[in-house]
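Dear Dr. L.,

I hope this message finds you well. Following up on our conversation about the binding site, I have prepared a predicted three-dimensional model of the protein together with guanosine-5'-diphosphate. For your records, I am including the exact sequence and ligand specification that went into the calculation, followed by the structure tokens. Please feel free to forward this to your student if that is useful.
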Amino acid sequence: MAFEGLSSRLQNVFSKLRGKGKVSEDDVSEAMREVRLALLEADVNFKVVKDFIAKVKEKAVGKEVMDSFTPGMVIIDIVNKELTDLMGGSQSKLARATKPPTVIMMVGLQGAGKTTTSGKLAKMLQKQNHRPLLVAGDIYRPAAIKQLQVLGEQIKVPVFSLGDQTSPVEIAKAGLQHGKDNGHDYVIIDTAGRLHVDEELMEELRQIHSHVNPDEVLLVVDSMTGQDAVNVADHFNKQLELTGVVLTKLDGDTRGGAALSVKAVTGCPIKFATLGEKLDALEPFHPERMASRILGMGDMLSLIEKAQSNIDTEKAKEMERKMRNAEFTFDDFLEQMDQVKKLGPIDQILDMLPGMGKMKQMKDIKVDDKQMGRIEAIVQSMTTDEKQSPEIINHNRRKRIALGSGTSLAEVNRLIKQFDEMRRMMKQFSDMMGPKGGKNKAM
Ligand code: GDP
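The resulting structure of the complex is given below.
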């Protein structure tokens, strides 16, 4: 997961500070030394680290901090603000043309994730009720056009292509015209990448740029390549006027150096991050939320937004009614797990909850997709009757379920016990609230 090392190191530094009633200048220096090492280890550009530490230190040794009742907390707050600033301060939104279509040109090296990101972006826009068009302009990478067409079919977004024998400039021009003629309000042009930054590529991109006059030029970089990604961004930005960066593969980037350096080095805001191969694994980049995630303070806002766009509210209401009436069965339980899974991999969800990042580091607690899979297997090995009336699941049935799901009797027992407790709690709660949920009978 992104920022794993950095996050746990910073949290350790701050847990030492947090407990202190009084913080000396030495304490601050020691903490900053550790923050500096943590950032360098996370592959953050050394100049960026130097400036960052200088800024934090200047603010942290001020009289107000030293004299405050909770100096540790104040320092964490300073680091939080500086981290947020480092990544661009506030969210940088996608541009929108005054007269549609808005033209988005996707650029980047081969393998960075340009084609997949084009598809993800189209899907996101479509979800917001826009009518995007994808233009297949990567004629050099074998199968790039086909890949975009397959993505387009999956998300039901049309893909404009002229094959791989027409020049990318002509394709871009014709694609834009096609978009205008067919009422598309966004035209996303997937351009050709190369293995390395070279003059020929830049010239071709400049040509396309001058012909389609894009509202956005988004550079797609692979965050797993760390400082290389930052160098690529710097290079592109000097040759083309980039309007934003998309950081891909943040799910596999345990260090996070690129995310923390790109803005400071290039001046170009990070507009999106992608966290997986699935087509909905694209998130608008919010510097303040990312900083909180790094510091283990969670990101409830992103979680709520995810829930709002992915969870079926009718089903959620029905579930709530069942809980109130204690009619909740194992079938409902499975259904709920399904809804949670729609939000993304469980470890990514946990990272958004305050303090959960730390919990994940504990040895005995394991909440991951594999564990969810085992729970699901147990429930699926139950008969329909058992799922509806869990009280009939006796010892023999439990043994059969364990065998059928490839789990152990202890795991089956634990799940049923937890389920019972959950139902009992719901029942008590709904009794207390009364039939309409308003009166409190216990009073
Ligand atoms: P392009 O050459 O820049 O068009 O790159 P592609 O879009 O073909 O992506 C290259 C590879 O990276 C593909 O296998 C993608 O599935 C993968 N990829 C792209 N974005 C992500 C991401 O956010 N996370 C992960 N894990 N893989 C990604």
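In brief: Strands lie at 102-108, 132-136, 159-160, 186-190, 216-222, 244-248, 270-274, 282-284.

With kind regards,
A. P.
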